Amino acid sequence: MNNEAFRIPKNRRPVTIWIHPEGRVVGSMFVLPQSAYSVGEEKPIEVLNYPDPFLVIALDESGEIRFYNKRSIVRVIYPQESPEQGAELVKLACSLHMMDGSRLKGTIQEFLPPENARLFDYINSSSSGGSFVKIHLDEGDVCLVNTAYIVQVAPEE
Predict the structure, then answer these.
(1) 8 Å CB contact between 19 and 72
(2) What's this model's pTM, rounded to 2 decimal places?
(3) Residue 82 lies in a domain
């Protein structure tokens, strides 16, 4: 039987993932060429916030395919996407203090309704889409953070 007929075409997106308790994993996640929610390629945060419990990762070193439980993923980092623009784009500078003692500093950049435009509202609202929130790190990368591993969120100037 030819399995190619059952294959769903996807693009690879290079990522670095921190898994609890395994640690750092470097590889690629798979995204659809067309997002169901926006123009262009599916976003990594969409994949992470889908209800499916597992994420498929192809390891860089060996090419091995692994299925990681999303609840064990602490954070996912990937290169900056093309910046979104618009008057409705809200930028919230913050730092996230993680369970492992690390601190992630950056900006949440989302199109938010005025009633949910505060940092507290965003972190607590379902408008963030699920278990992962996106922060643009000061170093220039994008970081998707599992809210279950955040101890504290603090606004920054």
Answers:
(1) yes
(2) 0.89
(3) no
pLDDT along the chain (157 residues), means of 10: 74 96 96 90 93 95 95 95 74 96 94 86 69 92 95 93
Domain that holds residue 51: 9-76
Residue that is last in its domain, among 76, 99, 119: 76
- Give the end of a domain, one of 76, 104, 131: 76
> What b/e readout covers 60-96, taking b as 16+ CB neighbours within 10 angstroms?
eeeeeeeebebebbbbbbbeeeeeeeeeeebebbbeb
The DSSP bridge partners found for residue 60 are none
Query: Is 2 a member of any domain?
Result: no
User: CA 94 to CA 59: how far, in whole Å?
Assistant: 31
Backbone angles phi, psi at 14, to 5 degrees: -65, 135
